[in-house]
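Entry
Fold in token form

___
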Amino acid sequence: MKNLLSIALTAFFALSVQAQGTTLEQQQEEDTTIVVAAYFCKNDTMTFHRMQGKEKINGNDTTLVHQIDEEFMIVVTDSTDKGYKMELTPLSCEVRGKEEGYEGRMASLMWDEIKNLRCRFSTDEWGTVQHIENWREIRDALKKGYASAFDHLYAELPGLDSIMPRKLFENMLILGCSTEDGVKGQYDELEQLFGLHGTEFSMNPVDVDDVSESGFPSHTTVQAFYTKPADEYDFDGDYMVQTTTETTLSADDVSSLATSTMGAFFSGEMGDSITKYMNEALKTEKGGLKVSNKAQFCFFYNGWPKLVQEVKETSLGDTFKRVEYDAIEWTRRHWGVFSFPEEEEEKGI
């Protein structure tokens, strides 16, 4: 069984170079584009392992903020010419660093509340997620879960309310899951796995100058290519999409953004202290803030995701760097019209 824990951040760049070097030359001559499309069958089953976390880097010191390891299963419950009905079932969750901050603790507490909750969703014929069928059930469960998690969180950290008022924080989270789109946003793994489905990509590098979600200029490079099988689990026709986005904010932009953000999430001396620290740092760091986001999306020939990983680096000169990583990799599979006897014996499927 493939092990996601073997993926290091440095391997991300090594894999990118290797994958480009192993492009199928004969297909590259025939094709100029790749379309991410789903060719799923009823009862297809995929199990995924997700690892996401944050690290802070100050000089030569690297500190783990938190890391969350999850396992979940996706099953195709129906397949028609108009699309697919699917179900996501959470299987396990382990949080490292939950003792150090509220983010890890919140993730651990929420898992206890929603670990038995299944998400039923539908896609179009390409595999793009369209609807969360039981979004009202999930909404109600999330609201109840947030209330219970906050009870525990603010009891364990009595000083938290003076820094981050519970009512404000809780209301923001509840508001975020009060609609179907909001609930869909809670399942960001669905966007990572199926967000590219239905999209056509050039096999030549495409450079795009655009505006980021936060409203700042960004530059993105996108490329798609076929990959040669690396082991017995891969197939001819498997493919990959790579994206790299670079965004730079001036010192004034960072100062304005930090002030508004701290004011929204933190109150009192904590918010003032953080804002003051940011402004002091910006006086010496004339280059502003740089955000680099590198991602790759690897698919089997039939459109099932095999590996999705993203590394986001946020740096403020030499003063501060934060690395956020998020990777989802398949661990077990059972496809309705295909047979993998060796895998079934090994993986117990």
